[in-house]
Design a protein that fits this description.
heterodimer, A: mainly alpha, ABC transporter involved in vitamin B12 uptake, BtuC, two-stranded antiparallel sheet, globular, disordered C terminus, B: about 240 residues, Rossmann fold, four-stranded antiparallel sheet, about 25% strand
Protein backbone atom coordinates (compact mmCIF):
# COMPACT_ATOMS: atom_id res chain seq x y z
CA UNK A 1 0.00 0.00 0.00
CA UNK A 2 2.75 2.38 0.97
CA UNK A 3 4.75 1.43 -2.11
CA UNK A 4 1.67 1.98 -4.26
CA UNK A 5 1.28 5.51 -2.91
CA UNK A 6 4.97 6.23 -3.45
CA UNK A 7 4.68 5.15 -7.08
CA UNK A 8 1.54 7.27 -7.55
CA UNK A 9 3.25 10.21 -5.87
CA UNK A 10 6.36 9.87 -8.02
CA UNK A 11 4.20 9.78 -11.15
CA UNK A 12 2.43 13.00 -10.24
CA UNK A 13 5.58 14.57 -8.82
CA UNK A 14 7.65 13.85 -11.91
CA UNK A 15 5.22 15.93 -14.00
CA UNK A 16 5.50 18.77 -11.45
CA UNK A 17 9.26 18.48 -11.68
CA UNK A 18 9.18 18.83 -15.47
CA UNK A 19 6.98 21.94 -15.20
CA UNK A 20 9.23 23.43 -12.53
CA UNK A 21 12.33 22.77 -14.65
CA UNK A 22 10.91 25.11 -17.27
CA UNK A 23 10.55 27.90 -14.71
CA UNK A 24 13.99 27.15 -13.29
CA UNK A 25 15.84 27.25 -16.62
CA UNK A 26 14.34 30.61 -17.55
CA UNK A 27 14.84 32.03 -14.08
CA UNK A 28 18.46 30.90 -14.26
CA UNK A 29 19.45 32.79 -17.39
CA UNK A 30 17.02 35.73 -17.26
CA UNK A 31 16.27 36.16 -13.56
CA UNK A 32 12.58 36.47 -14.30
CA UNK A 33 9.55 34.29 -13.63
CA UNK A 34 7.87 33.36 -16.88
CA UNK A 35 4.19 33.76 -16.07
CA UNK A 36 3.20 32.38 -19.49
CA UNK A 37 4.75 28.98 -18.70
CA UNK A 38 1.49 27.51 -17.38
CA UNK A 39 -0.34 28.50 -20.56
CA UNK A 40 2.36 27.06 -22.80
CA UNK A 41 1.91 23.88 -20.73
CA UNK A 42 -1.84 24.01 -21.44
CA UNK A 43 -1.36 24.59 -25.18
CA UNK A 44 1.01 21.60 -25.18
CA UNK A 45 -1.72 19.47 -23.62
CA UNK A 46 -4.18 20.53 -26.33
CA UNK A 47 -1.70 19.90 -29.13
CA UNK A 48 -1.09 16.41 -27.76
CA UNK A 49 -4.81 15.79 -27.45
CA UNK A 50 -5.54 17.03 -30.99
CA UNK A 51 -2.77 14.88 -32.45
CA UNK A 52 -4.18 11.82 -30.72
CA UNK A 53 -7.89 12.45 -31.38
CA UNK A 54 -7.88 14.19 -34.78
CA UNK A 55 -4.83 12.64 -36.41
CA UNK A 56 -4.92 9.31 -34.57
CA UNK A 57 -1.20 9.44 -33.84
CA UNK A 58 0.54 7.42 -31.14
CA UNK A 59 1.38 8.84 -27.78
CA UNK A 60 5.06 9.46 -28.52
CA UNK A 61 4.26 11.38 -31.70
CA UNK A 62 1.84 13.48 -29.64
CA UNK A 63 4.58 14.16 -27.08
CA UNK A 64 7.05 15.13 -29.80
CA UNK A 65 4.48 17.35 -31.51
CA UNK A 66 3.70 19.10 -28.24
CA UNK A 67 7.39 19.63 -27.55
CA UNK A 68 7.95 21.18 -30.98
CA UNK A 69 4.93 23.46 -30.60
CA UNK A 70 6.19 24.48 -27.17
CA UNK A 71 9.63 25.30 -28.57
CA UNK A 72 8.07 27.47 -31.29
CA UNK A 73 5.92 29.25 -28.69
CA UNK A 74 9.05 29.75 -26.58
CA UNK A 75 10.83 31.33 -29.55
CA UNK A 76 7.92 33.71 -30.14
CA UNK A 77 7.67 34.50 -26.44
CA UNK A 78 11.33 35.47 -26.30
CA UNK A 79 11.21 37.48 -29.51
CA UNK A 80 7.96 39.32 -28.80
CA UNK A 81 7.65 39.62 -25.03
CA UNK A 82 11.16 39.43 -23.59
CA UNK A 83 13.85 40.61 -26.00
CA UNK A 84 12.37 44.06 -26.78
CA UNK A 85 12.34 44.78 -23.03
CA UNK A 86 15.96 43.73 -22.58
CA UNK A 87 17.18 46.25 -25.13
CA UNK A 88 16.20 49.27 -23.05
CA UNK A 89 16.33 50.36 -19.46
CA UNK A 90 13.02 49.19 -18.03
CA UNK A 91 11.90 48.07 -14.61
CA UNK A 92 12.69 44.43 -13.88
CA UNK A 93 8.96 43.92 -13.42
CA UNK A 94 8.27 44.76 -17.07
CA UNK A 95 9.12 41.29 -18.48
CA UNK A 96 7.00 39.73 -15.72
CA UNK A 97 4.01 41.82 -16.79
CA UNK A 98 4.57 41.10 -20.48
CA UNK A 99 4.63 37.35 -19.82
CA UNK A 100 1.35 37.74 -17.92
CA UNK A 101 -0.01 39.41 -21.06
CA UNK A 102 1.11 36.44 -23.15
CA UNK A 103 -0.51 34.04 -20.69
CA UNK A 104 -3.87 35.85 -20.90
CA UNK A 105 -3.62 35.85 -24.69
CA UNK A 106 -2.89 32.11 -24.86
CA UNK A 107 -5.67 31.22 -22.43
CA UNK A 108 -8.24 33.27 -24.37
CA UNK A 109 -7.03 31.74 -27.61
CA UNK A 110 -7.53 28.23 -26.21
CA UNK A 111 -11.01 29.13 -24.92
CA UNK A 112 -11.93 30.46 -28.35
CA UNK A 113 -10.62 27.43 -30.26
CA UNK A 114 -11.33 24.53 -27.88
CA UNK A 115 -14.20 25.82 -25.74
CA UNK A 116 -14.32 25.85 -21.93
CA UNK A 117 -15.19 22.16 -21.33
CA UNK A 118 -12.66 19.65 -20.20
CA UNK A 119 -11.83 17.16 -22.93
CA UNK A 120 -10.42 13.73 -22.42
CA UNK A 121 -8.12 11.33 -24.20
CA UNK A 122 -9.75 8.38 -25.99
CA UNK A 123 -10.26 5.29 -23.79
CA UNK A 124 -7.42 3.41 -25.54
CA UNK A 125 -5.10 5.49 -23.40
CA UNK A 126 -6.76 4.90 -20.04
CA UNK A 127 -4.91 1.64 -20.31
CA UNK A 128 -4.78 -1.67 -18.54
CA UNK A 129 -3.20 -2.28 -15.18
CA UNK A 130 -0.10 -4.32 -14.55
CA UNK A 131 0.10 -6.08 -11.25
CA UNK A 132 3.45 -6.63 -9.65
CA UNK A 133 2.59 -8.35 -6.41
CA UNK A 134 0.47 -5.84 -4.53
CA UNK A 135 1.61 -2.98 -6.75
CA UNK A 136 -0.76 -1.86 -9.50
CA UNK A 137 0.64 0.31 -12.24
CA UNK A 138 -1.06 1.48 -15.43
CA UNK A 139 0.54 1.88 -18.85
CA UNK A 140 -0.09 5.60 -18.60
CA UNK A 141 1.84 5.76 -15.33
CA UNK A 142 4.72 3.86 -16.90
CA UNK A 143 4.75 6.26 -19.84
CA UNK A 144 4.68 9.29 -17.54
CA UNK A 145 7.43 7.95 -15.31
CA UNK A 146 9.61 6.90 -18.23
CA UNK A 147 9.21 10.15 -20.16
CA UNK A 148 9.69 12.50 -17.23
CA UNK A 149 12.60 10.67 -15.65
CA UNK A 150 14.12 10.19 -19.09
CA UNK A 151 13.86 13.92 -19.75
CA UNK A 152 15.31 14.80 -16.35
CA UNK A 153 18.30 12.51 -16.79
CA UNK A 154 18.87 13.70 -20.36
CA UNK A 155 18.70 17.34 -19.28
CA UNK A 156 21.14 16.82 -16.42
CA UNK A 157 23.59 15.09 -18.72
CA UNK A 158 23.18 17.70 -21.46
CA UNK A 159 23.78 20.59 -19.05
CA UNK A 160 26.78 18.91 -17.47
CA UNK A 161 28.61 17.58 -20.51
CA UNK A 162 27.81 19.41 -23.71
CA UNK A 163 29.21 22.71 -24.88
CA UNK A 164 25.74 24.22 -25.27
CA UNK A 165 24.77 22.98 -21.80
CA UNK A 166 27.88 24.50 -20.29
CA UNK A 167 27.22 27.79 -21.99
CA UNK A 168 23.72 27.81 -20.47
CA UNK A 169 25.18 27.16 -17.01
CA UNK A 170 27.77 29.89 -17.50
CA UNK A 171 25.13 32.36 -18.68
CA UNK A 172 22.87 31.44 -15.75
CA UNK A 173 25.66 32.12 -13.30
CA UNK A 174 26.87 35.37 -14.82
CA UNK A 175 25.69 36.75 -18.14
CA UNK A 176 28.55 39.25 -18.46
CA UNK A 177 31.26 36.68 -17.71
CA UNK A 178 29.75 34.24 -20.21
CA UNK A 179 29.87 36.98 -22.85
CA UNK A 180 33.51 37.71 -22.02
CA UNK A 181 34.33 34.05 -22.67
CA UNK A 182 32.82 34.34 -26.14
CA UNK A 183 29.36 32.91 -25.47
CA UNK A 184 26.66 34.46 -27.63
CA UNK A 185 24.33 35.11 -24.72
CA UNK A 186 21.32 36.24 -26.79
CA UNK A 187 21.44 32.90 -28.56
CA UNK A 188 21.76 31.03 -25.25
CA UNK A 189 18.71 32.88 -23.92
CA UNK A 190 16.62 31.93 -26.98
CA UNK A 191 17.66 28.27 -26.76
CA UNK A 192 16.89 28.20 -23.03
CA UNK A 193 13.41 29.69 -23.41
CA UNK A 194 12.66 27.26 -26.27
CA UNK A 195 13.90 24.30 -24.23
CA UNK A 196 11.94 25.36 -21.14
CA UNK A 197 8.75 25.83 -23.16
CA UNK A 198 9.23 22.50 -24.94
CA UNK A 199 9.53 20.76 -21.57
CA UNK A 200 6.44 22.61 -20.31
CA UNK A 201 4.41 21.42 -23.30
CA UNK A 202 5.46 17.82 -22.81
CA UNK A 203 4.41 18.11 -19.17
CA UNK A 204 1.04 19.33 -20.44
CA UNK A 205 0.46 16.12 -22.37
CA UNK A 206 1.62 14.00 -19.42
CA UNK A 207 -0.67 15.79 -16.96
CA UNK A 208 -3.53 15.62 -19.48
CA UNK A 209 -2.99 11.85 -19.62
CA UNK A 210 -2.64 11.47 -15.85
CA UNK A 211 -5.89 13.27 -15.01
CA UNK A 212 -7.50 12.41 -18.34
CA UNK A 213 -8.70 16.01 -18.65
CA UNK A 214 -7.47 18.88 -20.81
CA UNK A 215 -9.00 22.33 -20.39
CA UNK A 216 -8.01 25.95 -21.05
CA UNK A 217 -7.77 26.82 -17.34
CA UNK A 218 -5.45 23.94 -16.43
CA UNK A 219 -2.44 26.19 -16.98
CA UNK A 220 -3.18 28.40 -13.98
CA UNK A 221 -3.36 25.72 -11.30
CA UNK A 222 -0.42 23.77 -12.64
CA UNK A 223 1.51 26.95 -13.27
CA UNK A 224 1.20 27.88 -9.61
CA UNK A 225 2.31 24.43 -8.55
CA UNK A 226 5.35 24.74 -10.78
CA UNK A 227 6.08 28.13 -9.23
CA UNK A 228 5.76 26.67 -5.74
CA UNK A 229 8.25 23.98 -6.68
CA UNK A 230 10.62 26.59 -8.12
CA UNK A 231 10.65 28.36 -4.75
CA UNK A 232 10.69 25.14 -2.72
CA UNK A 233 13.70 23.79 -4.61
CA UNK A 234 15.63 27.06 -4.56
CA UNK A 235 15.38 29.67 -7.30
CA UNK A 236 17.20 28.67 -10.43
CA UNK A 237 18.41 25.34 -9.03
CA UNK A 238 17.93 22.38 -11.40
CA UNK A 239 18.32 19.66 -8.75
CA UNK A 240 16.00 21.62 -6.49
CA UNK A 241 13.26 21.69 -9.13
CA UNK A 242 13.51 17.93 -9.63
CA UNK A 243 13.51 16.99 -5.94
CA UNK A 244 10.94 19.66 -5.06
CA UNK A 245 8.53 18.44 -7.74
CA UNK A 246 8.78 14.82 -6.58
CA UNK A 247 8.26 15.87 -2.95
CA UNK A 248 5.17 17.92 -3.77
CA UNK A 249 3.69 15.02 -5.76
CA UNK A 250 4.31 12.52 -2.96
CA UNK A 251 2.93 14.93 -0.33
CA UNK A 252 -0.27 15.40 -2.33
CA UNK A 253 -0.82 11.70 -2.96
CA UNK A 254 -0.17 10.84 0.70
CA UNK A 255 -2.60 13.43 1.95
CA UNK A 256 -5.25 11.93 -0.32
CA UNK A 257 -4.45 8.35 0.66
CA UNK A 258 -4.19 8.84 4.40
CA UNK A 259 -6.33 11.93 4.87
CA UNK A 260 -8.99 13.86 3.01
CA UNK A 261 -8.76 14.33 -0.72
CA UNK A 262 -10.20 17.84 -0.47
CA UNK A 263 -7.22 18.87 1.67
CA UNK A 264 -4.56 17.61 -0.74
CA UNK A 265 -3.45 21.04 -1.88
CA UNK A 266 -3.74 22.56 1.59
CA UNK A 267 -1.45 19.86 2.97
CA UNK A 268 1.03 20.15 0.10
CA UNK A 269 1.28 23.92 0.21
CA UNK A 270 1.21 23.97 4.03
CA UNK A 271 4.25 21.72 3.90
CA UNK A 272 5.97 24.14 1.54
CA UNK A 273 5.27 27.03 3.91
CA UNK A 274 6.78 25.11 6.83
CA UNK A 275 9.82 24.11 4.77
CA UNK A 276 10.37 27.71 3.72
CA UNK A 277 10.21 28.82 7.36
CA UNK A 278 13.11 26.50 8.07
CA UNK A 279 15.02 27.12 4.80
CA UNK A 280 13.93 30.44 3.25
CA UNK A 281 16.36 29.99 0.37
CA UNK A 282 14.66 26.73 -0.64
CA UNK A 283 15.93 23.16 -0.37
CA UNK A 284 18.92 23.57 -2.66
CA UNK A 285 19.12 27.36 -2.89
CA UNK A 286 22.40 29.09 -2.07
CA UNK A 287 22.53 31.33 0.97
CA UNK A 288 23.39 34.44 -1.00
CA UNK A 289 20.62 36.63 -2.33
CA UNK A 290 20.06 35.69 -5.95
CA UNK A 291 18.01 37.49 -8.51
CA UNK A 292 17.82 40.59 -6.39
CA UNK A 293 18.14 42.92 -9.29
CA UNK B 1 47.16 47.02 -32.49
CA UNK B 2 44.40 48.79 -30.58
CA UNK B 3 43.57 52.40 -31.16
CA UNK B 4 40.83 54.42 -29.53
CA UNK B 5 39.86 57.81 -30.88
CA UNK B 6 37.71 60.43 -29.17
CA UNK B 7 35.78 57.86 -27.23
CA UNK B 8 32.79 59.12 -25.25
CA UNK B 9 30.87 56.62 -23.09
CA UNK B 10 28.88 56.40 -19.90
CA UNK B 11 25.96 54.94 -18.02
CA UNK B 12 22.57 56.54 -18.63
CA UNK B 13 22.96 60.26 -18.09
CA UNK B 14 26.43 60.00 -16.54
CA UNK B 15 29.31 60.50 -18.97
CA UNK B 16 32.22 58.54 -17.54
CA UNK B 17 34.60 58.99 -20.49
CA UNK B 18 34.84 62.46 -22.00
CA UNK B 19 36.64 61.92 -25.29
CA UNK B 20 39.69 59.78 -24.65
CA UNK B 21 42.43 58.69 -27.08
CA UNK B 22 44.59 55.66 -26.44
CA UNK B 23 46.91 53.49 -28.51
CA UNK B 24 48.28 50.06 -27.64
CA UNK B 25 51.17 49.06 -29.95
CA UNK B 26 51.59 45.36 -30.77
CA UNK B 27 53.81 43.47 -28.34
CA UNK B 28 53.78 46.08 -25.60
CA UNK B 29 52.44 46.42 -22.09
CA UNK B 30 50.41 49.59 -21.71
CA UNK B 31 49.29 50.67 -18.25
CA UNK B 32 46.22 52.76 -17.66
CA UNK B 33 46.36 54.35 -14.23
CA UNK B 34 44.10 56.68 -12.31
CA UNK B 35 42.13 57.08 -9.11
CA UNK B 36 38.80 55.46 -8.27
CA UNK B 37 36.06 56.63 -10.57
CA UNK B 38 38.44 57.97 -13.21
CA UNK B 39 36.85 55.76 -15.87
CA UNK B 40 39.40 52.94 -16.14
CA UNK B 41 36.92 50.08 -15.89
CA UNK B 42 34.50 51.91 -18.21
CA UNK B 43 37.28 52.11 -20.79
CA UNK B 44 37.86 48.35 -20.56
CA UNK B 45 34.16 47.52 -20.73
CA UNK B 46 33.65 49.79 -23.73
CA UNK B 47 36.54 48.17 -25.61
CA UNK B 48 34.95 44.75 -25.00
CA UNK B 49 31.52 45.89 -26.21
CA UNK B 50 29.88 45.58 -22.79
CA UNK B 51 29.09 49.30 -22.90
CA UNK B 52 27.98 50.94 -26.11
CA UNK B 53 29.89 54.20 -26.64
CA UNK B 54 28.06 57.47 -27.33
CA UNK B 55 30.61 58.46 -29.93
CA UNK B 56 34.17 57.76 -30.98
CA UNK B 57 35.92 54.82 -32.58
CA UNK B 58 37.65 51.68 -31.39
CA UNK B 59 39.87 49.86 -33.90
CA UNK B 60 41.54 46.51 -33.34
CA UNK B 61 44.07 45.40 -35.95
CA UNK B 62 42.74 48.07 -38.31
CA UNK B 63 39.18 46.74 -37.98
CA UNK B 64 36.47 48.93 -36.53
CA UNK B 65 34.98 47.04 -33.58
CA UNK B 66 32.99 49.92 -32.09
CA UNK B 67 29.64 48.78 -30.70
CA UNK B 68 30.08 45.10 -31.66
CA UNK B 69 28.57 42.54 -29.26
CA UNK B 70 31.04 41.17 -26.74
CA UNK B 71 31.29 37.61 -28.12
CA UNK B 72 32.36 39.01 -31.49
CA UNK B 73 35.05 41.18 -29.93
CA UNK B 74 36.31 38.08 -28.10
CA UNK B 75 36.33 36.11 -31.35
CA UNK B 76 38.62 38.74 -32.91
CA UNK B 77 41.25 38.03 -30.26
CA UNK B 78 40.59 40.38 -27.36
CA UNK B 79 40.05 38.99 -23.85
CA UNK B 80 39.30 40.74 -20.59
CA UNK B 81 40.08 39.57 -17.07
CA UNK B 82 37.47 41.69 -15.31
CA UNK B 83 37.77 43.45 -12.00
CA UNK B 84 36.77 41.11 -9.21
CA UNK B 85 37.83 38.14 -11.37
CA UNK B 86 34.28 36.77 -11.96
CA UNK B 87 35.06 33.10 -11.69
CA UNK B 88 32.13 30.80 -12.48
CA UNK B 89 31.81 29.59 -8.89
CA UNK B 90 29.40 26.73 -9.63
CA UNK B 91 31.70 25.23 -12.26
CA UNK B 92 34.88 23.29 -11.59
CA UNK B 93 38.31 24.80 -12.17
CA UNK B 94 38.70 22.59 -15.22
CA UNK B 95 35.32 23.63 -16.63
CA UNK B 96 36.22 27.28 -16.07
CA UNK B 97 39.39 26.78 -18.12
CA UNK B 98 37.53 24.87 -20.83
CA UNK B 99 34.99 27.68 -21.03
CA UNK B 100 37.93 29.97 -21.73
CA UNK B 101 38.49 28.07 -24.97
CA UNK B 102 34.76 28.24 -25.80
CA UNK B 103 35.24 29.77 -29.26
CA UNK B 104 38.22 27.67 -30.29
CA UNK B 105 37.86 24.84 -32.77
CA UNK B 106 41.53 23.89 -33.11
CA UNK B 107 43.20 20.84 -31.61
CA UNK B 108 45.70 22.60 -29.38
CA UNK B 109 43.28 23.33 -26.56
CA UNK B 110 44.65 20.42 -24.52
CA UNK B 111 48.18 21.65 -25.10
CA UNK B 112 47.27 25.12 -23.88
CA UNK B 113 45.55 23.60 -20.87
CA UNK B 114 48.81 21.89 -19.95
CA UNK B 115 50.64 25.20 -20.38
CA UNK B 116 48.23 26.90 -17.96
CA UNK B 117 48.78 24.05 -15.47
CA UNK B 118 52.54 24.46 -15.83
CA UNK B 119 52.26 28.16 -15.16
CA UNK B 120 49.88 27.71 -12.24
CA UNK B 121 50.44 24.20 -10.78
CA UNK B 122 47.92 24.88 -7.99
CA UNK B 123 45.13 24.93 -10.61
CA UNK B 124 45.99 21.40 -11.71
CA UNK B 125 45.87 20.19 -8.10
CA UNK B 126 42.44 21.76 -7.68
CA UNK B 127 41.02 21.13 -11.15
CA UNK B 128 37.98 19.17 -9.90
CA UNK B 129 37.12 21.73 -7.20
CA UNK B 130 34.40 24.29 -7.75
CA UNK B 131 35.74 27.68 -8.80
CA UNK B 132 34.05 29.37 -5.86
CA UNK B 133 36.09 27.40 -3.33
CA UNK B 134 39.45 28.85 -4.42
CA UNK B 135 41.24 31.59 -2.49
CA UNK B 136 41.47 35.11 -3.92
CA UNK B 137 44.95 34.63 -5.37
CA UNK B 138 44.04 31.26 -6.88
CA UNK B 139 40.91 32.78 -8.41
CA UNK B 140 43.02 35.49 -10.02
CA UNK B 141 45.33 32.82 -11.44
CA UNK B 142 42.29 30.95 -12.73
CA UNK B 143 40.87 34.12 -14.28
CA UNK B 144 44.17 34.82 -16.07
CA UNK B 145 44.57 31.18 -17.08
CA UNK B 146 41.02 31.13 -18.42
CA UNK B 147 41.62 34.26 -20.48
CA UNK B 148 44.81 32.71 -21.90
CA UNK B 149 42.84 29.63 -22.99
CA UNK B 150 41.22 31.86 -25.63
CA UNK B 151 44.71 32.56 -27.07
CA UNK B 152 44.05 36.31 -27.13
CA UNK B 153 46.19 38.64 -29.20
CA UNK B 154 45.34 41.44 -26.81
CA UNK B 155 44.75 40.77 -23.13
CA UNK B 156 43.00 43.36 -20.99
CA UNK B 157 43.58 43.07 -17.24
CA UNK B 158 41.41 45.09 -14.89
CA UNK B 159 42.99 45.49 -11.42
CA UNK B 160 44.63 42.07 -11.28
CA UNK B 161 46.32 42.88 -7.94
CA UNK B 162 43.18 43.99 -6.14
CA UNK B 163 42.72 42.47 -2.70
CA UNK B 164 45.71 40.14 -2.95
CA UNK B 165 48.59 39.59 -0.49
CA UNK B 166 51.90 41.32 -1.50
CA UNK B 167 53.65 38.04 -2.34
CA UNK B 168 50.81 36.99 -4.62
CA UNK B 169 50.77 40.45 -6.22
CA UNK B 170 54.46 40.08 -7.11
CA UNK B 171 53.78 36.67 -8.65
CA UNK B 172 50.86 37.97 -10.70
CA UNK B 173 52.97 40.83 -12.07
CA UNK B 174 55.75 38.40 -12.94
CA UNK B 175 53.26 36.24 -14.83
CA UNK B 176 51.92 39.29 -16.71
CA UNK B 177 55.45 40.08 -17.88
CA UNK B 178 56.00 36.47 -18.97
CA UNK B 179 52.75 36.42 -20.93
CA UNK B 180 53.84 39.59 -22.69
CA UNK B 181 57.28 38.16 -23.50
CA UNK B 182 55.56 35.17 -25.10
CA UNK B 183 53.91 37.55 -27.55
CA UNK B 184 50.63 38.73 -26.08
CA UNK B 185 49.95 42.46 -26.07
CA UNK B 186 48.66 43.73 -22.74
CA UNK B 187 46.54 46.63 -21.59
CA UNK B 188 46.71 46.83 -17.81
CA UNK B 189 44.48 48.85 -15.50
CA UNK B 190 45.95 49.21 -12.03
CA UNK B 191 45.71 51.11 -8.79
CA UNK B 192 49.05 49.66 -7.77
CA UNK B 193 50.73 52.40 -9.79
CA UNK B 194 54.31 51.65 -8.74
CA UNK B 195 54.17 48.03 -9.94
CA UNK B 196 52.15 48.88 -13.02
CA UNK B 197 54.68 51.48 -14.18
CA UNK B 198 57.57 49.14 -13.47
CA UNK B 199 56.48 46.48 -15.96
CA UNK B 200 54.82 48.74 -18.55
CA UNK B 201 56.39 50.16 -21.70
CA UNK B 202 53.91 52.95 -22.01
CA UNK B 203 51.43 54.58 -19.63
CA UNK B 204 48.28 56.66 -19.71
CA UNK B 205 46.91 58.63 -16.78
CA UNK B 206 43.15 59.02 -16.59
CA UNK B 207 41.46 61.60 -14.37
CA UNK B 208 37.65 61.96 -14.20
CA UNK B 209 37.13 60.78 -17.75
CA UNK B 210 40.01 62.61 -19.41
CA UNK B 211 43.56 61.58 -20.29
CA UNK B 212 45.75 64.04 -18.44
CA UNK B 213 49.13 62.55 -19.28
CA UNK B 214 50.70 59.84 -21.38
CA UNK B 215 54.16 58.78 -22.38
CA UNK B 216 56.82 56.09 -21.89
CA UNK B 217 56.32 54.42 -18.51
CA UNK B 218 59.59 55.66 -16.95
CA UNK B 219 58.89 59.23 -18.01
CA UNK B 220 55.40 59.05 -16.50
CA UNK B 221 56.85 57.52 -13.34
CA UNK B 222 59.22 60.49 -12.94
CA UNK B 223 56.67 63.14 -13.76
CA UNK B 224 56.46 65.44 -10.71
CA UNK B 225 52.64 65.44 -10.71
CA UNK B 226 52.48 61.65 -10.82
CA UNK B 227 55.15 61.34 -8.15
CA UNK B 228 53.12 63.47 -5.85
CA UNK B 229 49.62 62.21 -6.60
CA UNK B 230 50.19 58.47 -6.99
CA UNK B 231 53.62 57.56 -5.70
CA UNK B 232 53.78 59.46 -2.42
CA UNK B 233 56.42 61.90 -3.68
CA UNK B 234 59.27 59.38 -3.96
CA UNK B 235 61.06 58.37 -7.10
CA UNK B 236 60.54 54.86 -8.41
CA UNK B 237 63.66 52.68 -8.28
Amino acid sequence: MLLQQVVNGLTLGSTYAIIALGYTLIFGVLNIVNMAHGEIFMIGAFVGLMLVTKLQTGIFTALAGAMLTGAVLGYLLERIALRPLRRREVSHLAPLISTIGVSIFLESLALKIFGPQAQSFPPVFSGQLFELGTLKISIIQIVILAVSFGLMIALRFWLAKTKMGKSIRATAENLETAGLLGVNTSQVIIVTVMLASGLGSVAGVLVGLAFNAVEPTMGITMGFKGLAVLILGGLGNITGAMVGGLLLGIAEVFSVAYGESSYREAVAFGLIIILLFIRPQGLFGSGSAQGGR
Amino acid sequence: MLSIRQLVAGYGSITALKSIDLTVPEGSIVSLIGANGAGKTTTMKTIMGLIRPTSGEICFQDQNITGQPVHQVVSKGVSLVPEGRSILSQMSVLENLEMGAYLRRDREVQHDLQKVFQRFPILEERKQQLGGTLSGGQQQMLAIGRALMARPKLLLLDEPSMGLAPLVVAEIFKVIQEINQEGTTILLVEQNVRQALKIAHYAYVLETGRMVLHGPADAVANDPKILEAYLGGRRVG
